[in-house]
Amino acid sequence: MTAHYARLSDTTVREHWEKARKVNAEGQPVQVSPDGPLGDAAWTKQHLSRATQALPNGYCELPMVRICPHANSCLTCPMFVTTAEFLPQHRDQQQATLQIISAAEANGQARVAEMNRQVAGNLGKIIAALEDDRSEGKEAAAGAS
């Protein structure tokens, strides 16, 4: 019986994953066709990644057999994917990053400010893309009522 209900739950999770807007570290949409030849493989990869490589603000799509060369650089990594569920973390990180940039500029630490500008820019793109998706979803729901 547990296997039956677990399968239903997995099906529901997959449906939500397929519907969720996915964006990469630059805020660009990531398209995975559930009906395409790689749909099952993409779901399996995503499902496994979530179980073992969850990040505080998204998921790493790096294959499990590879080691990440980027120490805490997810927002500049092409393997990073996130969804709207992480908007609060992105907003918090954007605020903290902007404070780091301001402090670095005030202290003449140009390299620190420069390194954080790309992260801040990517956070801005991610937040805008995910907020657009949320507002489109609200408009669609309002139109259906």
Could you characterize the architecture of this molecule?
- The protein has helices spanning 2-19, 39-52, 87-106, 110-144; strands spanning 23-24, 54-55, 58-60, 80-82.
- The protein has four helices and four strands; from the N terminus they run H-E-H-E-E-E-H-H.
- It is globular, with a radius of gyration of 18 Å.
- It starts with a helix and ends with a helix.
- It has a four-stranded antiparallel β-sheet.
- The relative contact order is 0.13.
- It is an alpha+beta fold and 145 residues long.
- Helices cover 60% and strands 7% of the residues.
- A hairpin with a 2-residue loop joins strand 2 and strand 3 (58-60).
Beta-strand segment tally: 4
Largest beta sheet: strand ordering: 1-4-3-2
Main structural class: alpha+beta
Task: Give the DSSP E fraction (strand runs of 2 or more residues).
Answer: 5-15%
Q: How would you spell out the order of helices and strands?
A: HEHEEEHH
Please count the helical segments. 4
Give helix % range. 55-70%
Unreliable parts: none
Short description, anyone?
With 145 residues, the protein is α+β, with helices and mostly antiparallel strands. The protein is built from four helices and four strands; from the N terminus they run H-E-H-E-E-E-H-H.
Question: Can you lay out the helices and strands and say which pair or pack?
Answer:
Elements: H1 2-19, E1 23-24, H2 39-52, E2 54-55, E3 58-60, E4 80-82, H3 87-106, H4 110-144
Helix pairs in contact: 3-4
